[in-house]
Specification:
Two copies of one chain form a homodimer. Chain A is α/β, with parallel strands linked by helices and about 425 residues long. Chain A has helices spanning about 15-20, 35-45, 80-85, 90-100, 110-125, 140-155, 155-160, 180-195, 215-225, 235-245, 275-280, 285-295, 315-320, 330-340, 350-370, 370-375, 380-400; strands at about 30, 55, 60-65, 70-75, 100-105, 205-210, 225-230, 255, 265-275, 295-305, 345-350, 400-410. In chain A, strands 8-7-6-9-10-12-11 form a seven-stranded mixed beta sheet, with helices on both faces. Chain A has a five-stranded mixed beta sheet with strand order 1-3-2-4-5. In chain A, helix 3 runs antiparallel to helix 4. The longest helix of chain A is centred in the C-terminal third of the chain and has 20 residues, at about 380-400. In chain A, about 55% of the residues are buried. Chains A and B meet through helix 14, strand 11 and strand 12 of A and helix 14, strand 11 and strand 12 of B. Strand 11 (about 345-350) of chain A pairs antiparallel with strand 11 of chain B.
């Protein structure tokens, strides 16, 4: 998964800063005589801890929640937006922003960052009205997964081509140096994964959730392994198969349009980059069983996923409009994949800052391609993806989201690398 | 903590091998007409999955539980040992071995390794009689911790000097190469920890559970930091202070004879090597609060602890006779230190095979010093520590125990190393 969290609280700040925000909870200021609308906006801003933002209503009336200089100006087009925000802030903000009924003047990512940070104190006080009940679905898990994946990844390969790197790698990159380019960093990420897995020529690898096939093809081409790669997105599978043909890798790599739960065979390595976020909390044990069944006794595995420092709810807009069925687990929750099957974690690396950097590249490219996306699709898609990428940048910058690469094997497997020096070319 | 697990099941084997052991559950064979005693031994061996071992009773009668050639011969001196084994196998084996009422001919570590591996299948079937209830204590946690630490670490510095390295480092070493010597590997471990913490000269470091002070002194001497190191063992503190004086580090390192829960001040780095095993499951949240209180906003921390691939009970003999109050958590359980405080895990490394190697060095030195230990203390101490070290080797070799080094910081701390290349001198 490539998404992140919108509207979640800032985790990263010190107790001081949270206490600082809490110190002026009633700091809502108006510039004129206060209307009911402005008072309600004031309460909403207070509930989010009083971020440094100026809100301009449809009437021209202004509200500020903080005495700090505003980082951004938020314009609400009409009274309906206000009512929607009061009813369900997360969902309403995303929808109204996408539809252009909310405008943000200033750096969107920095604005969201400041909201996430101030929200920590705000959440403690709670919203002044009750939240909506969480929705849940009862359905066949594989059918549901198919629908969810189709929703996001089958928007069209052409759309993603406009703002991803040339290999269409839609997961956190690895920047050997923060100034590295995106193409180079995605290549470095694939090599980082392959080195961690200590792939040997001739080995058999299974990949769960292979995107447009870039990693599967890279592993085959550069590391001489045979790969069987699973994915539910037909648009992605079509592209991946074309690429395999073009690069003469058809004999080495097979792409299977199926759910990870239907993986068959036994492999030297299991790899999954950016799929766990789509797996759903109640299916972690099932994923663990699939891995345990698929791994040879001396096999290694790698799971790459967005994670949390502690369990947090998902943003409703993100789950409804961008990633249906998505859930971002804490590291403790992720252990439910491994522990029931006696799979031992060998290595965990947190690449949080690398994901913030990756997203900055994506957002920059999205902005450059905005006119073309608008022409081929519509303005709403540009705005929705702008909000999703900017809020994701904010989530990774503030430590609301993290990126974990987890290497594992059966608990008693002695054929594991002696140290990690080989990953850094230092052995 | 330096201990491991005795009598736990082998986790590392494939399902095949466990199934293989389960395939001949009733394989107990006798060489002569079977006495009641030999039948009971047969049932006990069956319950442990039929390890390849030959048991010789006080009468000379022999029992074998497996058709595989025996790895060791176990001699029981009298009927009382048998009754004790039937009543409480873990505790009785340890005690009777320490007292010389059980003899093992053959490689003790290899023998225990085979028992741990076969026990996995055996445990599924369960013992043919009920286990004892678990004991628990209700007491002041700090007083209890003091007693527990005194029990193990105050046996006497001279005793540990006979079989540890010259710096008295009583935790898992880091062998850059498996053939490295123990002195070199303990030095490399301390540097590995310091590099992971990215220590800068002039920083303030707090250490929880500092043993004989080797790491605290090393950090001060080689990395130019100031250290405040806590420990409950007075024998260890006395030695550590002497060393600080001898090396002219009194101004830079202070050793405090107190519990980690009484840590005061704020630090750039928190480090704890081999203490978590003594902390007790119900105190993880308290440890997390201490860390959150002690860390500056941009501080880093490292926790080094024995762990499990999944929760497992402790061996009763080990907890009663060697490490009172000890508990070895799974990685999921360890997360209870971090998640409630919004501390983010940055890096986890599993050094399981390094601990097996460390223990092999310790056992070899213990055997070389056996005559001197026997003269200064008694035979029972030699045998108890031989069993503890050999069973620990088996536990790490089979994957029943792991060693985790966990690096962490506050979730939103951006002043963390960009990659891990600096740990490997590759940046």
């Amino acid at each position: 998964m490539k998404a992140m969290d919108l509207g979640a609280a800032c985790n990263g700040e010190t107790r001081e800063s949270a206490a600082g925000a809490a110190a002026h909870p009633k700091a809502a200021r108006t510039t004129k005589r206060r209307s009911v609308a402005s008072r309600l906006i004031g309460r909403l801003l207070d509930a989010y801890g009083g971020p440094p933002v100026r809100v301009v209503l449809w009437s021209g009336e202004e509200v500020a929640a903080s005495e700090r200089p505003p980082l951004a100006t938020v314009r609400l087009r009409d009274r309906r937006v206000l009512l929607e925000l009061l009813w369900d802030p997360d969902l309403a903000f995303g929808d109204a922003y996408s539809e252009g009924r909310i405008e943000v003047e200033g750096d969107l990512a920095r604005f969201l960052e400041s909201v996430f940070c101030s929200a920590r104190a705000g959440r403690r006080r709670g919203l002044p009205w009750p939240g909506l009940p969480r929705l849940s679905w009862l359905a066949d898990p594989i059918e549901e997964a198919r629908r969810n994946i189709h929703h996001h990844y089958d928007v069209g390969n052409d759309f993603y081509r406009l703002w991803l790197d040339e290999r269409l790698v839609y997961t956190c990159a690895y920047f050997p140096d923060p100034a590295a380019g995106l193409e180079q960093a995605q290549l470095a990420k694939m090599d980082h994964v392959c080195r961690k897995l200590a792939l040997r020529p001739g080995e058999e690898v299974v990949e769960a959730g292979c995107g447009w096939g870039s990693l599967a093809l890279h592993m085959a081409e550069r590391y001489g392994v045979r790969v069987r790669a699973y994915n539910l997105s037909s648009a992605q599978i079509v592209h991946a198969r074309e690429e395999a043909r073009r690069r003469g890798l058809e004999a080495q790599v097979s792409f299977v349009e199926d759910d990870y739960r239907n993986i068959t065979g036994r492999y030297d390595a299991f790899v999954s980059v950016g799929m766990l976020e789509h797996v759903g909390r109640d299916q972690y044990a099932a994923l663990g069983r699939v891995i345990a069944r698929a791994l040879k006794p001396e096999g290694r595995g790698l799971l790459h996923s967005i994670g949390r420092a502690r369990p947090q709810r998902m943003n409703r807009w993100l789950v409804r409009r961008i990633f249906p069925g998505a859930y971002i687990p804490s590291l403790k929750e992720m252990m439910d994949v491994f522990e029931p099957e006696n799979l031992a974690v060998l290595d965990v690396e947190n690449l949080r800052l690398h994901y913030a950097r990756t997203l900055e590249h994506w957002l920059e490219r999205l902005e450059r391609a905005a006119a073309r996306i608008r022409a081929a699709y519509d303005e709403r898609l540009v705005r929705a993806y702008r909000l999703y990428l900017a809020s994701s940048i904010a989530a990774f910058r503030t430590g609301s989201c993290h990126l974990y690469q987890i290497v594992f094997s059966r608990a008693g497997n002695d054929r594991i690398p002696w140290t990690r020096a080989h990953v850094y070319g230092a052995d």
